[in-house]
Protein backbone atom coordinates (compact mmCIF):
# COMPACT_ATOMS: atom_id res chain seq x y z
CA UNK A 1 0.00 0.00 0.00
CA UNK A 2 2.96 2.32 0.37
CA UNK A 3 2.89 5.17 -2.14
CA UNK A 4 -0.82 4.78 -2.91
CA UNK A 5 -2.96 7.81 -3.46
CA UNK A 6 -6.41 8.23 -2.06
CA UNK A 7 -9.20 8.67 -4.55
CA UNK A 8 -12.36 10.55 -3.72
CA UNK A 9 -15.89 9.23 -3.94
CA UNK A 10 -14.85 6.10 -5.77
CA UNK A 11 -14.81 7.86 -9.13
CA UNK A 12 -11.06 7.83 -9.59
CA UNK A 13 -10.57 11.55 -8.91
CA UNK A 14 -7.65 12.30 -6.65
CA UNK A 15 -8.47 14.28 -3.52
CA UNK A 16 -6.47 17.48 -3.14
CA UNK A 17 -4.53 17.48 0.13
CA UNK A 18 -5.48 21.11 0.70
CA UNK A 19 -9.12 20.07 0.59
CA UNK A 20 -8.43 17.26 3.06
CA UNK A 21 -6.66 19.70 5.37
CA UNK A 22 -9.56 22.15 5.07
CA UNK A 23 -12.05 19.37 5.81
CA UNK A 24 -10.07 18.36 8.84
CA UNK A 25 -9.83 21.93 10.11
CA UNK A 26 -13.47 22.76 9.39
CA UNK A 27 -14.80 19.58 10.97
CA UNK A 28 -12.70 20.36 14.04
CA UNK A 29 -14.23 23.85 14.20
CA UNK A 30 -17.73 22.42 13.72
CA UNK A 31 -17.19 19.87 16.49
CA UNK A 32 -15.92 22.58 18.84
CA UNK A 33 -18.97 24.75 18.13
CA UNK A 34 -21.34 21.79 18.61
CA UNK A 35 -19.68 21.00 21.94
CA UNK A 36 -20.15 24.62 22.98
CA UNK A 37 -23.80 24.45 21.87
CA UNK A 38 -24.36 21.39 24.05
CA UNK A 39 -23.11 23.38 27.06
CA UNK A 40 -25.27 26.37 26.12
CA UNK A 41 -28.38 24.19 25.79
CA UNK A 42 -27.71 22.60 29.18
CA UNK A 43 -27.36 26.03 30.78
CA UNK A 44 -30.48 27.32 29.03
CA UNK A 45 -32.45 24.32 30.31
CA UNK A 46 -31.16 24.78 33.87
CA UNK A 47 -32.03 28.47 33.80
CA UNK A 48 -35.49 27.71 32.48
CA UNK A 49 -36.14 25.09 35.15
CA UNK A 50 -34.95 27.43 37.92
CA UNK A 51 -37.57 30.07 36.98
CA UNK A 52 -35.32 32.69 38.58
CA UNK A 53 -35.93 36.00 36.75
CA UNK A 54 -32.21 36.80 36.33
CA UNK A 55 -31.55 33.34 34.90
CA UNK A 56 -34.50 33.61 32.52
CA UNK A 57 -33.30 36.98 31.24
CA UNK A 58 -29.79 35.52 30.83
CA UNK A 59 -31.33 32.91 28.53
CA UNK A 60 -32.04 35.62 25.95
CA UNK A 61 -28.31 36.19 25.52
CA UNK A 62 -27.55 32.47 25.60
CA UNK A 63 -30.15 31.72 22.93
CA UNK A 64 -28.72 34.48 20.73
CA UNK A 65 -25.27 32.97 21.16
CA UNK A 66 -26.66 29.54 20.29
CA UNK A 67 -28.29 30.92 17.13
CA UNK A 68 -25.03 32.62 16.09
CA UNK A 69 -23.17 29.36 16.60
CA UNK A 70 -25.66 27.53 14.41
CA UNK A 71 -25.14 30.15 11.68
CA UNK A 72 -21.38 29.61 11.94
CA UNK A 73 -21.81 25.84 11.51
CA UNK A 74 -24.01 26.39 8.45
CA UNK A 75 -21.39 28.76 6.99
CA UNK A 76 -18.59 26.26 7.62
CA UNK A 77 -20.54 23.50 5.87
CA UNK A 78 -21.32 25.82 2.94
CA UNK A 79 -17.62 26.69 2.61
CA UNK A 80 -16.72 23.00 2.73
CA UNK A 81 -19.23 22.19 0.03
CA UNK A 82 -17.95 24.97 -2.21
CA UNK A 83 -14.33 23.96 -1.68
CA UNK A 84 -15.02 20.29 -2.33
CA UNK A 85 -17.04 21.02 -5.46
CA UNK A 86 -14.31 23.31 -6.81
CA UNK A 87 -11.66 20.68 -6.08
CA UNK A 88 -13.64 17.99 -7.90
CA UNK A 89 -14.23 20.31 -10.87
CA UNK A 90 -10.53 21.21 -11.02
CA UNK A 91 -9.62 17.53 -10.81
CA UNK A 92 -11.99 16.53 -13.60
CA UNK A 93 -10.62 19.35 -15.78
CA UNK A 94 -7.13 17.84 -15.64
CA UNK A 95 -5.57 20.33 -13.28
CA UNK A 96 -2.70 19.18 -11.13
CA UNK A 97 -3.83 18.18 -7.69
CA UNK A 98 -1.97 17.36 -4.54
CA UNK A 99 -2.40 13.77 -3.50
CA UNK A 100 -2.00 11.99 -0.23
CA UNK A 101 -0.28 8.63 -0.36
CA UNK A 102 -1.04 5.86 2.10
CA UNK A 103 2.34 6.51 3.74
CA UNK A 104 1.04 9.99 4.66
CA UNK A 105 3.39 11.84 2.33
CA UNK A 106 2.06 14.43 -0.08
CA UNK A 107 2.74 14.19 -3.78
CA UNK A 108 1.57 15.83 -6.97
CA UNK A 109 0.00 14.09 -9.91
CA UNK A 110 -1.33 15.28 -13.19
CA UNK A 111 -4.89 14.07 -13.61
CA UNK A 112 -5.92 13.35 -17.18
CA UNK A 113 -9.53 13.66 -18.14
CA UNK A 114 -11.12 11.53 -20.71
TrEMBL record:
GO cellular component terms, A-Z: nucleus
Gene Ontology biological process terms from the UniProt entry:
entrainment of circadian clock; positive regulation of circadian rhythm; rhythmic process
Q: Which UniProt keywords apply?
A: Biological rhythms, Nucleus
- Record region (Disordered): 85-114
Q: Where in the cell is it found?
A: Nucleus
The residue ranges flagged as biased composition, category Polar residues, are 85-96
Which residue intervals define the domain Protein EARLY FLOWERING in the entry?
15-95
Family label: Belongs to the EARLY FLOWERING 4 family.
Q: What is this protein called?
A: Protein ELF4-LIKE 4
Organism in which the protein naturally occurs: Platanthera zijinensis
Lineage per the UniProt record = Eukaryota, Viridiplantae, Streptophyta, Embryophyta, Tracheophyta
